[in-house]
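tool=predict chain=A
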Amino acid sequence: MRIPIHNTKDTLVGTPATRNLRYDYKRHLKERVIEILLFLAAFFSVFITFAIIYMLISESLVFFEHVSLREFLTDTQWTPLFDDAHYGILPLVSGTVVSSAVALLVALPLGTTIAIYLSEFAPFTVREIAKPFLELLGGIPTVVYGYFALLFVTPLLQMLIPDLPGFSLLSAGLVMGIMIIPYVSSMTEDAMRSVPMHLREGSYAMGATRFQTAIKVVMPASLSGIAAAYILGISRAVGETMVVAIAAGMQPNLTWDPTEPAATITAYIVQVSLGDLPHGSIGYQTIFAAGLTLLLMTLAFNILGHLLRKYYREVY
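tool=predict ok
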């Protein structure tokens, strides 16, 4: 029997396939550099978040050395820039809640309806044309929405409500709702389109209509994504600045009536930031206490959205 004789050159050098599998220092170095860059990008976002939180908390602690937490949460007046200073955050919170509620009453039903149509009823060409225009609506600067609310929506509302003042939470809330519609509809439509087709086909096989399938099958199956869209819309409404600063007024007012003018937390921060208050004064520190309150409100909504997504999440 002949014993095969191996080529000494192939044994020492290796075949081309073997050479490709050998450790390549340059390729390994490139991979490490890419991993480090990706890690730094992720770390940078986390670092910025913690830096913002640290800044708000540290400056707010200076404010609460002069103002008690009880007064901050229970006082019904917010006049930190007056001689007779009051530091109750409730007027700003009420303005924020009322304007956000009006916006959500507009954005959530209309956004969900648009998402249902685009996902379940619209032809492909209509969807491809309508969705870019809808997302373009979300790219308009908010200051344009603010002047649109002040100069167009408010006069229209005054024709229906003659006693409506020139600044109102109703006008600002309606335009904020229009501004939020693209966020709600786009995310909701994406969540509904991610539902597997066999669920729809099973519903059609049972005799359900397209509308019944959309309402009773597709929406429950995509509830976690819809909840995320709603939470994003709420956070967007609560954090809106320019629309309420221009159209809702800048005077803190503890009211739950949307037809009255009132200031929101973000509008007050803009008002004080544009002033000439000296750094370190108690009036200057109020913007950090108001910002911390806004951060906690947004955090609460995000935690609620996370819990809803976790509870209703469907895996197919």
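Residues 119 and 193 are 6 Å apart (CA to CA). The two ends are 60 Å apart (CA to CA).
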